[in-house]
Amino acid sequence: MSAWRKAACTGPGPADGAHPIGYLCRNLREEENQALTHALHDRVRLLRSLSLEIGAEVRYQNRSLLGTLDDDLERADGMLDKAMSRVARVVRAPQHYYVVVVFLFSVACFASVWCFVRFR
């Protein structure tokens, strides 16, 4: 309450309460209550609209972002399954063929490094 409202409400008055200052005090309180009620109503309206916007954003993210994430994870799972099946096939295959390939790869690497160092 402002200072002049407090002064208007604290003034002396008759015991029966029919004094105009008491009426003015009640009227000022009612006006202040109405103003506070309107301010609260505006804040509630703002919070309601904000919560509706948040709900719409959550629904959008659930549909679009989580849907694409689910698709990406399914694709990654498929690629991982393929890689694991290839590894299992390599493990079950005869080992002498892969040893020869690794040996030839090593020789080629060492030869290229030797040529690079030698003719630099």
Radius of gyration, rounded?
A: 42 Å
Spatial shape: rod-shaped
How far is the N terminus from the C terminus?
Answer: 91 Å
SSE series: HHH
The helix content is over 70%
What do you see in this structure?
This protein is mostly helical. The protein is 87% helix and 0% strand. It has three helices and no strands. The termini are far apart. 0% of the residues are buried. InterPro entries: BET1_SNARE. One of its GO terms (cellular component) is Golgi membrane. It is found in: Endomembrane system; Golgi apparatus membrane. This is t-SNARE coiled-coil homology domain-containing protein. Keywords: Golgi apparatus, Membrane, Protein transport, Transmembrane, Transmembrane helix, Transport.
Compact overview of the structure:
Helix content is 87%, strand content 0%. The chain is mostly helical. The chain crosses the membrane at residues 97-117.
Supply database-style keywords.
120 residues, mainly alpha, rod-shaped, disordered N terminus, BET1_SNARE, transmembrane, t-SNARE coiled-coil homology domain-containing protein, protein transport
Write the layout of secondary structure elements.
Blueprint: H1 3-9, H2 20-92, H3 95-118
